[in-house]
């Protein structure tokens, strides 16, 4: 029986969904933050629950062969990257293994799982950064939240972000310090600048800076605009967003354009997208192309098919599919996302798309009742997976193929098991690394009607 506060040797065998190491002591599962498979360590047991415990590394006996010095000196403090201390190819292997194990264990799915598609350069891949702003002794601090807290780790540079961010951060620091601009304090709810958000079009080089303020009046606005113009290459848009609520949500209701356009442009493949301050856009455009091209390949379109894109968001997959399908019908619960999807279809001159706002579990059965059917169905649900009503309607409409894009292998496994029980076979599965150095894994699965 394990004892709390006692020290044990352990070998880390696996990584959990938040990037924590997992090993066993006397057959009992222990989670070890910072441990990676192959590490032999000594841990002190911090807590014990019925089925598992948590241990803290107090001594490294023998490091894993996959352990590396992370490129970022803040990797252990900042909450952003959980497995940056693991060699990149080992990260890709462990992600494949996780998908494999979960599909087998939860879904009893027996299929081909390909090696994870990774990035050639797994750094500087994010197109959106959010910097909380604080102040210590008259010095502005901008950076990222510490693991599990709201303390800001001060930094000019993040290795997974576009390098343009350091120019934005430096300029904002300079503006705040030079003109003694106040920054927001979560406790007193006083002070002006709350967050700085940047968005970058990777294909176009266009940059948007969003300044989130607690109140409307932004002093010395013109000086700020001039400074950003001078220092930030590709600057196309400066936007102020006002959030005077006591909340962890970054954006408030009102948005004002201070300079340039209210949106920037980016491309994924040949498709053009408008990105505004608050619109959703995939954060890794390079891997989005890889993932959605795989989805398109799995859909095996000839140009004659009617396709459903369920949980379509701003229609990124829908537009990919529309280039090769007769018609694409997208369904999504957020109204502004559907407006973006329609606008994106429009600017790409794709007139074979139709979008519906509503809960998929309500809209899909209604559309089917009206006689609409998909020859191919693509789903890209949130972490909780597909609603059973959606799956039920899919199997009743009997499409030739179902392409399942998933950000959570556990719900993917559950839903594949449902579809396999009702006449579909999982032909192949492709994990894609959308977020290098984090524990996330995205997966696309191809199912065919038996
Ligand atoms: N492929 C999309 C992203 C999908 S993310 C894109 O590229 O934009 C999952 C989407 O499902 C989110 O946009 C979310 O708003 C939507 N969603 C969540 N619950 C839903 C429901 N019950 N019905 C329809 N859409 C839902």
From TrEMBL:
Gene3D superfamilies: 2.40.50.1070, Nucleic acid-binding proteins (2.40.50.140), Vaccinia Virus protein VP39 (3.40.50.150). GO terms for biological process: rRNA base methylation. The active site is at 407 (nucleophile), 407. CDD domains: AdoMet_MTases (cd02440). It comes from the Bacteria. PROSITE patterns: SAM_MT_RNA_M5U (PS51687), TRAM (PS50926), TRMA_1 (PS01230), TRMA_2 (PS01231). InterPro entries: MeTrfase_TrmA_AS, MeTrfase_TrmA_CS, NA-bd_OB-fold, SAM-dependent_MTases_sf, TRAM_dom, U5_MeTrfase_fam. Pfam families: TRAM (PF01938), tRNA_U5-meth_tr (PF05958). GO terms for molecular function: rRNA (uridine-C5-)-methyltransferase activity. S-adenosyl-L-methionine binds at residues 282, 311, 332, 380. Keywords: Methyltransferase, S-adenosyl-L-methionine, Transferase. Residues 1-59 form the TRAM domain. Belongs to the class I-like SAM-binding methyltransferase superfamily. RNA M5U methyltransferase family. This is 23S rRNA m(5)U-1939 methyltransferase.
């Amino acid at each position: 029986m394990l004892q709390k506060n006692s020290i044990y040797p352990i070998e880390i065998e696996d990584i959990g969904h938040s990037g924590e190491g997992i090993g066993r002591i006397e057959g009992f599962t222990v989670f070890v933050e910072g441990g990676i498979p192959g590490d032999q360590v000594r841990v002190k047991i911090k807590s014990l629950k019925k089925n598992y415990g948590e241990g803290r590394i107090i001594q490294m006996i023998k490091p894993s062969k996959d352990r590396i010095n992370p490129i970022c000196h803040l990797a252990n403090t900042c909450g952003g990257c959980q497995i940056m201390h693991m060699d990149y190819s080992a990260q890709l292997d462990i992600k494949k293994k996780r998908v494999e194990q979960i599909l087998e264990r939860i879904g009893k799915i027996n299929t081909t799982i390909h090696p994870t598609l990774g990035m050639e350069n797994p750094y500087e891949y994010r197109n959106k950064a959010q910097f909380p702003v604080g102040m210590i002794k008259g010095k502005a601090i901008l950076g990222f939240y510490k693991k599990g807290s709201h303390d800001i780790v001060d930094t000019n540079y993040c290795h997974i972000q576009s390098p343009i961010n350091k120019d934005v951060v430096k300029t904002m620091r300079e503006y705040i310090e030079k003109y003694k601009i106040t920054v927001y304090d979560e406790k007193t709810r006083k002070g002006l600048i709350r967050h700085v958000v940047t968005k970058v079009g990777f294909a176009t080089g266009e940059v948007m800076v969003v300044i989130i303020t607690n109140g409307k009046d932004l002093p010395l606005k013109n000086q700020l605009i001039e400074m950003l113009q001078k220092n930030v290459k590709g600057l196309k848009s400066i936007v102020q967003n006002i959030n005077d609520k006591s909340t962890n949500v970054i954006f408030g209701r009102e948005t004002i354009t201070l300079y340039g356009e209210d949106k920037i442009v980016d491309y994924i493949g040949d498709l053009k997208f408008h990105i505004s301050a608050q619109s959703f856009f995939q954060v890794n455009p390079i891997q989005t192309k890889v993932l959605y091209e795989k989805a398109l390949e799995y859909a095996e379109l000839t140009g004659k098919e009617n396709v459903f894109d369920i949980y379509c968001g701003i229609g990124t997959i829908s537009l990919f599919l529309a280039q090769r399908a007769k018609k694409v019908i997208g369904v999504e619960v957020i109204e502004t996302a559907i407006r973006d999807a329609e606008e994106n279809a429009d600017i790409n001159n794709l007139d074979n798309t139709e979008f519906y706002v509503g809960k998929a579990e309500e809209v899909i059965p209604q559309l089917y009742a009206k006689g609409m059917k998909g020859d191919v169905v693509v789903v890209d649900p949130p972490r909780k997976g597909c609603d059973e009503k959606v799956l039920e309607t899919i199997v009743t409409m009997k499409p030739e193929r179902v392409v399942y894009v998933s950000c959570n292998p556990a719900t993917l496994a559950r839903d594949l098991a449902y579809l396999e029980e009702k006449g579909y076979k999982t032909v192949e599965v492709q994990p894609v690394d959308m977020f290098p150095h984090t524990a996330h894994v995205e997966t696309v699965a191809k199912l065919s009607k038996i």
